[in-house]
Structure formats: C-alpha cells, structure tokens
C-alpha cells in the first residue's frame, strides 16, 4: 500500500515538472501573448461583419425610401418587402414592414394586404416602437375601411391590453364599434367605463353626449335629458353643448313635451351648425302642436 502511494506521488510530481517546463518554453510564452491578439482579431472581425451587414441594410432601406419619395411605390414596396424577408434581423426590418403597410394602405388602397404587413410587424417585432402603431392602423382599417366592427373590437382590445398612451381614445373606438353594431347596451357600458377610468379625458364632452344619445335610443329619456343638460352646463363652449340642446329637444318631443322642445329649438337659431335641419325640426314640432291644438 505504501509503495502505491509513493508511485502516485512520483507521477504527480512528474506532471507538475512537465507543466512547469512548458510554461518556461518559448512557444508557450508566444502562445500566451498571441491569445489576446487573436481574441481582438476575432471580435474585430465580428464587429466588421456586423457593420458591413448594417451598412448593406441601410443602403437597401435608403434605396426603398428614395423610390417612395419619388412616387415609384411599386418598386419601393418591393424593396421594403425584400429587405425584411432577406434580412429579418436588420435594425430596419420593422420600419420596412411599416412602410410597406403604409404604401399598401395609402397608395394602393389594398387594405387586407396592408393589414398583413402591420400584423407581421406586431408578431415578428413585438418590442418595436412601431408595433403599437401598427396595431392601431389594423384596428382603424377594420373599422373605417372594411367596416368589420367585430374584428376591429378585438384589435382595439389587444391594443389596450398591451398598453397605449391613447387608452381613452382606443376605449372610445370600442364603444363606437358596439354602437355601430346596434349593440346599445354594450356601447353604454363602454362609454360609462371610459368616463370612469379616464375622468380627465379630453373626450369628456363627446363621450357624455354619445352616452346621452345612447340612453335616449334605449328609451331612458329622463336620464338622457339629465346627461344632455350636464353636457351643456359643464362644457358650454364645446360644439357638443349645442348638439346636446338639440338632442334634449328631440327627447322632449318624443315625450310629447312639444312646447318645451320648440323653445329649445327656437333658442338654437343662429348657433346650430345645420340651419336647414333645425328649420325642418322647428316646422315639424309646430305642425304637431297645431294638430294637437286642433284636436282639442
């Protein structure tokens, strides 16, 4: 047992001696000096390749941008699409997709293709500063161009969930979509939530007016009158104050308070933006009053 331990110790000492000699050798010293230089060369080579790729991508993007500014939209769209497909990791890839979507939307009026570009941007580059704007474009296209309100609601809600600096405006669009679908109950809920969640919103007068209209359509005339009056008193300089008075007259007319409706309508002469419509409503109410008087 003692002899085995001595042999192991000898082997260990021999290995240490060999390692020590290698460290003293010229080749070893040269190798140690060369390693940092080799690392620097490798890093420099990688940096150069990255620089070369970024330069190439910037040239591609610049060519596409030049074609777009010159009004050659087909060629610009082709180059933007090519840049993103061939170099998806390029720092300009997300911008290329956004520009592609803009050209398809504004110049080609190809809304489904524009939506495809915007959704690709949001999916492939979710952390891009353009991702939220791309979603907003998709929602607006579904709502205003394709009149696909259910899909618009889904995208607007997704935009709210991911976070946006215009949350009140997005909430308004959701409410408006439900209103256009004649889902007045859900529209009312969305308008009420907007006022509750964003009490300082700049849309306060418009939202309150729309909510009053919604209440009137649901047959809640008393609540509608209260809200129309609130719009007039709280935002007297807003154009919705005039519309609220006109709306209040309509509710009074529906409730058969023709005298009250006529007084409100007469008071709008000279201030209501659509004078012809006002004239017709006044005539209509006067006719109803005359018939009612004659029937007594």
TrEMBL record:
<dbReference type="InterPro" id="IPR011990">
    <property type="entry name" value="TPR-like_helical_dom_sf"/>
</dbReference>
<dbReference type="Pfam" id="PF13432">
    <property type="entry name" value="TPR_16"/>
</dbReference>
<dbReference type="InterPro" id="IPR019734">
    <property type="entry name" value="TPR_rpt"/>
</dbReference>
<dbReference type="Pfam" id="PF13174">
    <property type="entry name" value="TPR_6"/>
</dbReference>
<protein>
    <submittedName>
        <fullName>Tetratricopeptide repeat protein</fullName>
    </submittedName>
</protein>
